[in-house]
Amino acid sequence: MFGTYRSGYRAILLLVALYCLVAVWITGNPVFFLFDDRPTATFLIVWLVPLLAWYALVTAKLIARRRPRPLHRLRRYTGLNRAWLSRAVLLVGAMVLWASAFSILKVNIPRLVPYYADPALIAFDRAVFGTDPWRLTHALIGPGGTVFLDRAYAAWFFVLIGCMGFVIQTRNARLQVISLLSLVLVWLVLGVGLATALASVGPC
Question: CA 198 to CA 36: how far, in whole Å?
C-alpha cells in the first residue's frame, strides 16, 4: 500500500497518533473526535467524495459500454487500484482524526499557559506602526473594508479542506508524503508549539 515511501507514511501516521494521544490526555475521552465542535463529519464526507465519484464514473462507463458482468469488472478495477484506494481511505480517516485532535489542542492552550503575550505583542505593533494597526486599516479602508478582509481571511479554511482533499486522493505518493508530513509538522510546531509558547488572544 505504501511502497517506496513507507517510512514517510509511517511518520505521518505516528504524528497523527501523537496528536490523538495528547487530545485523549486533555479530554480524558478516547473518542474525543465524536464530540469535537468542528465539523468532523463534513471532513469525512468531503474527502470521501472523490473516491465515491471514481466508483460512480467507472460504473457509468461499464454500463455505457455494455460490458458483460459489470460487478465482476468493478471488483477487478478495485483490485488493480487497491494500493491507491486503501491508502486514500486510510489517510481520510487519519486526517479526520488529525483535524479533530488539533482543534482540541488549540482550544486548550489556556489550560497549559494563560494568555500572557498580548501586552507585549500590542507594544510591538505600536513600535512598528506608530499606533494600533487597526486604526490604520480603518482609516484606509473603513469598517466595510475590515468586514471584507475578515470574510476573505475565513476563506483559508475552504482552501485548506480542498487542498487536503486533493492531496489525500492523489496517486502521486511523493507529493502526498511531502505535503501531509509538512502539514502535520508545521501545525504541530507553529500551530501548537509556538502558539503555546506565545499564548495570546491575538491583537489585530
Answer: 24
CA angle 153, 103, 23 (to 5 degrees): 165
Residue type for position 69: R
Helix then strand count (H, E) for the chain reads: 10, 0
pLDDT tens-place string over residues 5-52: 999 999 999 999 999 999 999 989 888 888 766 667 788 888 999 899
What's the pLDDT at 41?
79
Residue pair 181/13 in contact by the 8 Å Cβ criterion = no
Length of the chain counted residue by residue = 204
Contacts of 171 (CB under 8 A, 6+ apart): 84
Set of cell numbers at residue 186: 508545521
Tell me, what's the pLDDT at 32? 84
**What phi-psi label fits residue 105: left (phi over 0), alpha (psi between -120 and 50 degrees) or beta?**
alpha
Place of cell 494521544: 21
Q: What is the DSSP string of 40-61?
A: HHHHHHHHHHHHHHHHHHHHHH
- Identify the residue whose cell numbers are 501523537: 18
Sign of CA dihedral 173, 176, 182, 188: negative
